Amino acid sequence: MKIALLGYGRMGKSIETIAIARQHDIILKVKDTASITNLEEADVAIDFSIPSAAVANIKLAIDAGVPVISGTTGWLDQYDTITAYCKEHQGTFLYASNFSLGVNLFFELNKRLSTLMSGFSEYTAEMVETHHTQKLDAPSGTAITLAEDIIEKTTYTNWTLDAPKADEIHIEAKRIEGIPGTHEITYKSEIDTISICHTAHSRQGFAMGAVIAAEWIKDKHGIFTMKDVLNIG
Ligand SMILES: NC(=O)C1=CN([C@@H]2O[C@H](COP(=O)(O)OP(=O)(O)OC[C@H]3O[C@@H](n4cnc5c(N)ncnc54)[C@H](OP(=O)(O)O)[C@@H]3O)[C@@H](O)[C@H]2O)C=CC1
Ligand SMILES: O=C(O)C1=N[C@H](C(=O)O)C[C@H](O)C1
After folding, report:
1. What is the ipTM, given to two decimal places?
2. Where, by residue number, does (S)-2,3,4,5-tetrahydrodipicolinate bind (predicted)?
3. How far, in Å, from the CA of 73 to the mean position of ligand 2?
4. 14-34, pLDDT tens digit by residue?
5. N or C: the chain end with fewer CB closer than 10 Å?
6. Domains defined for the chain, CATH in brackets
């Protein structure tokens, strides 16, 4: 498979290593939107760039008729615009706030726990996400997915990085050198605490998941999520 890498930083490089080991060819690797050329020669484009560039990069891939997957976070306020653009141009698109198998299993665990906890108002939910100091966005895309899933199953209506109101889930975003990504959800009452946690030990799970998603989406049409790829949930 011929892969175009839109973004060639920590994730782009990890994806390249895994893709080559799985016999794929990297035919384009760029660090800016202006360098994206001849995209139609790719079987799949993989965008791991920066929040302000993702939308333009994804549109270029859709315009070229190339299936595109994006793991870039921090641009989700424009997700509906992109899916509408993709439908209008009969394109193929998949976004995941987190491509790792472990986090996608954790997403399901979070939904199950929030369903259980929804009947017990004595518990308050809160979340801590911890990442390396180079991360541009806060909270992480993964934390937002986790919070949105809790909101869907409970009486919480919003998440916040600030002091929470009664119907808001507090997310604390910690930045510590070298941490690939840790997410912990805690339900606290006067009597006890229940918590679930996912800790990434490296970027390998994210990169492997992105390559598996690229292999899966190659000949498909439409808008997908990692639930389609992994067949879970
Ligand atoms: N969904 C998931 O599973 C995961 C998502 N992420 C997300 O992926 C994104 C990238 O993460 P990471 O690789 O660690 O970040 P990096 O900063 O290491 O890499 C981003 C790269 O994008 C390049 N870039 C800047 N502008 C553009 C542009 N217009 N078009 C294409 N490339 C551009 C940067 O170039 P330069 O070096 O010149 O600045 C850099 O090389 C982040 O949003 C992060 O949150 C990260 C891990 C997992
Ligand atoms: O920027 C990162 O590094 C990560 N970003 C993603 C996110 O925002 O959730 C996924 C992972 O946690 C690593």
Report:
1. 0.99
2. 132, 141-142
3. 7
4. 999 999 999 999 999 999 999
5. C
6. 2-99+204-230 (3.40.50.720), 101-199 (3.30.360.10)
